[in-house]
């Protein structure tokens, strides 16, 4: 199975073959070497894409998402097997991730995102009430594979604004993008023919520069170092969107626990800390819980984490991560022996860990289903405790009720958080979320307004 998607119009353009090694597997692919010719081909593909009504684009993506929603859909099963092999996640975890990502691509969610950001989606087809929105001709997408299916979100945003795409597939999930595009080609060839998906190494500056020569916009995912390297090469005229290292956490009040109930709060926290084996930016690194409920919550979370591990088994933990996780357990037990903390851990290996502590400590971000419960006097104290990390804030699971919910949510927004949700929903953002705090559809377009022209109707 090739991990590349090369449209038929590009098959005659010079390519080099490569083998992408990831995990314990290796997959073949092709990479164009004449990117100027690819740019010319994408310009032709763009003319056809521009002629597609946005309603047809939404309809086609919805049809693809409907097919991929079936657990036994052969391309989904093949992509899931590759993701399991490369990421080490269990098949159940991969399927949950695909359900979450692909569920956002149904028509109702796409239209909701378009209306929220553009008002009238048909401004992408031409002038409506004297205004129209024009997307870039070509978007370079440098994608990350820490969450299966994640590339679909930015790929679809670009196609919605009628931009062609060069997609750099993630090494940690090489199978999804090309498989998704093959299904898209079956449904609407014009859309799939507007995308070239391939791979090049992080140190391959020559290929990156050649692709940048034909791009009008860049969307980059990755760690801070990887994003900085791309940012340094982006040209002044190019739109640039970056999704670097982010930090998420939870915050729970005593009143929320009393209102929702201790077992349900614990279930929600365990779900947040277990989804995607806690490797997503949206996954909480710590849950700050009001001191009066923290111990009871932690004990219940331990039982809920056990159930999560039974229902959706964790993936394999590689040797280096296992050493880190074992060290975290030892440190937590050492601290608990001289404080009011406690540690609960799966008796059968490293499947899950719950730590109750009274101090935040440096946040490691190691993941692997570690629920850190830190006792705080109240929600305001929790907000202040997280303030030093504000530069990387993304997502907060806020367990609060009444006026306190609205007040603390606004405090978090001013601190830098770009998404507040209820515990249990942290890893499942909707398509209408302004990803990392910016409009990601409207952010790609430029507007043209017709003013003071008596003969113009539209």
TrEMBL record:
InterPro entries assigned to the protein according to its UniProt record, in alphabetical order: Ald_DH/histidinol_DH, CoA_reduct_LuxC
Pfam families hit by this protein: LuxC (PF05893)
Catalysed reaction equations from the record: a long-chain fatty aldehyde + NADP(+) + CoA = a long-chain fatty acyl-CoA + NADPH + H(+)
Keywords on record: NADP, Oxidoreductase
EC numbers for this chain: 1.2.1.50
Alphabetical GO biological process terms: bioluminescence
Domain of life assignment: Bacteria
The protein's enzyme class: oxidoreductase
Molecular function in Gene Ontology: acyl-CoA dehydrogenase activity; long-chain-fatty-acyl-CoA reductase activity
Family in the record: Belongs to the LuxC family.
Protein's name according to its UniProt entry: Acyl-CoA reductase
Species per Swiss-Prot/TrEMBL record: Saccharothrix violaceirubra
């Amino acid at each position: 199975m090739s991990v590349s998607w090369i449209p038929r119009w590009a098959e005659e353009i010079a390519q080099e073959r490569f083998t992408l090694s990831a995990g314990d597997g290796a997959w073949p692919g092709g990479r164009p070497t004449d990117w100027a010719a690819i740019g010319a081909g994408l310009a032709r593909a763009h003319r056809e894409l521009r002629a597609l009504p946005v309603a047809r684009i939404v309809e086609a993506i919805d049809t693809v998402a409907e097919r991929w929603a079936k657990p036994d859909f052969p391309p989904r099963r093949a992509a899931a097997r590759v993701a399991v092999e490369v990421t080490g996640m269990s098949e159940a975890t991969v399927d949950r991730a695909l359900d979450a990502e692909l569920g956002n691509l149904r028509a109702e969610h796409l239209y909701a995102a378009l209306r929220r950001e553009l008002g009238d989606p048909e401004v992408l087809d031409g002038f409506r009430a004297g205004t129209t929105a024009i997307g870039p001709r070509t978007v370079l997408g440098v994608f990350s594979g820490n969450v299966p299916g994640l590339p679909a979100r930015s790929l679809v945003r670009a196609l919605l604004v009628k931009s062609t795409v060069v997609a750099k597939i993630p090494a940690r999930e090489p199978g999804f993008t090309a498989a998704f595009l093959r299904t898209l080609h079956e449904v609407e060839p014009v859309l799939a023919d507007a995308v070239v998906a391939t791979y090049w190494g992080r140190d391959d500056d020559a290929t990156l520069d050649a692709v940048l020569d034909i791009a009008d916009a860049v969307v980059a995912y990755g760690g801070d170092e990887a994003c900085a390297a791309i940012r340094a090469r982006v040209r002044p005229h190019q739109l640039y969107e970056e999704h670097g290292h982010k930090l998420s956490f939870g915050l729970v009040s005593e009143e929320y626990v009393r209102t929702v109930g201790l077992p349900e709060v614990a279930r929600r926290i365990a779900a947040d800390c277990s989804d995607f084996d806690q490797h997503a930016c949206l996954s909480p690194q710590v849950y700050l819980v009001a001191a009066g409920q923290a111990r009871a919550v932690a004990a219940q979370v331990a039982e809920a984490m056990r159930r999560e591990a039974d229902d959706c088994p964790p993936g394999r933990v590689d040797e280096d991560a296992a050493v880190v996780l074992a060290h975290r357990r030892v440190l937590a037990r050492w601290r608990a022996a001289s404080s009011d903390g406690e540690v609960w851990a799966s008796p059968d290996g490293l499947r899950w860990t719950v730590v109750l502590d009274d101090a935040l400590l440096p946040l490691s971000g190691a993941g692997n289903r570690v629920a850190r419960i830190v006792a705080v006097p109240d929600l305001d104290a929790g907000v202040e405790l997280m303030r030093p990390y504000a530069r990387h804030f993304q997502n907060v699971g806020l367990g609060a009720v009444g006026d306190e919910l609205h007040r603390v949510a606004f405090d978090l927004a001013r601190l830098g958080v770009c998404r507040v949700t209820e515990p249990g929903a942290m890893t499942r953002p909707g398509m209408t979320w302004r990803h990392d705090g910016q409009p990601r559809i409207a952010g790609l377009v430029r507007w043209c307004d017709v003013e003071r022209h008596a003969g113009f109707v539209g």
